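Why should sequence recovery work at all? Because a backbone constrains its sequence more than one might expect. Tight turns favour small or flexible residues, buried strands favour hydrophobic ones, and helices have their own preferences. The token representation captures these environments compactly. In the example below, the structure is given first.
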């Protein structure tokens, strides 16, 4: 996701209704969490390139399946269990959209969330953000893809509601699988057109 900036105020607490009213009139996106409004900064070229590549790779799969649809970072989601409003880089919903009680824009039932990591968001997306996402009952997989180096992880919810690291890749010769939509993504395709992206593992000799 694009980098979260500092909260607008450490003193003022906002209701969800106030946040939505301000957000719907704003030129820049902000998150909301436990009364705080948090500005989101812009993304770097590699971040945007990886995001567009992922969308391009999953689109044909989703088109064939018909029941799942993807949205990019303009789609706001809400987690009623912990109050978070945010804009994931990519959201996949399988089945009909379900919306927040406060509007018909914000969805609450993503099946897959994909975040593109950058220097300023890696810790947040892998720790607190992931913890908050796990409160989404409909969420089946959480995917993180680094924009600076060949690195991707797929976390999956198990039948006992525990989360596991189900797949990972650390080389442009590898791939990851998003089981919810039946898509296997080649790392080389995800990083096509990026600059200064390095392998974490040497290329396979096979």
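From this structural description, the recovered sequence reads:
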């Amino acid at each position: 996701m694009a980098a979260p900036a500092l909260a607008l105020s450490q003193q003022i607490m906002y209701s969800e209704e106030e946040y939505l009213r301000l957000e719907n009139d704003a030129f820049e996106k902000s998150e909301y969490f436990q009364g705080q409004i948090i500005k989101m900064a812009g993304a770097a070229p590699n971040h945007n390139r990886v995001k567009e590549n992922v969308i391009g790779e999953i689109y044909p799969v989703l088109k064939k399946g018909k029941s799942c649809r993807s949205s990019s970072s303009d789609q706001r989601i809400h987690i009623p269990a912990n109050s978070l409003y945010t804009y994931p880089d990519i959201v996949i919903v399988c089945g009909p959209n379900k919306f927040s009680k406060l509007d018909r824009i914000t969805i609450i039932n993503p099946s897959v969330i994909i975040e593109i990591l950058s220097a300023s968001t890696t810790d947040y997306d892998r720790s607190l953000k992931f913890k908050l996402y796990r409160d989404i009952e409909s969420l089946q997989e959480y995917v993180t893809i680094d924009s600076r180096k060949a690195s991707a992880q797929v976390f999956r919810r198990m039948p006992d509601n525990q989360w596991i690291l189900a797949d990972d890749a650390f080389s442009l010769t590898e791939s990851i699988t998003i089981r919810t939509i039946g898509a296997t993504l080649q790392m080389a395709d995800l990083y096509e057109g990026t600059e200064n992206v390095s392998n974490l593992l040497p290329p396979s000799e096979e």
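A few observations help interpret the result. The CA atoms of residues 78 and 85 lie 4 Å apart.
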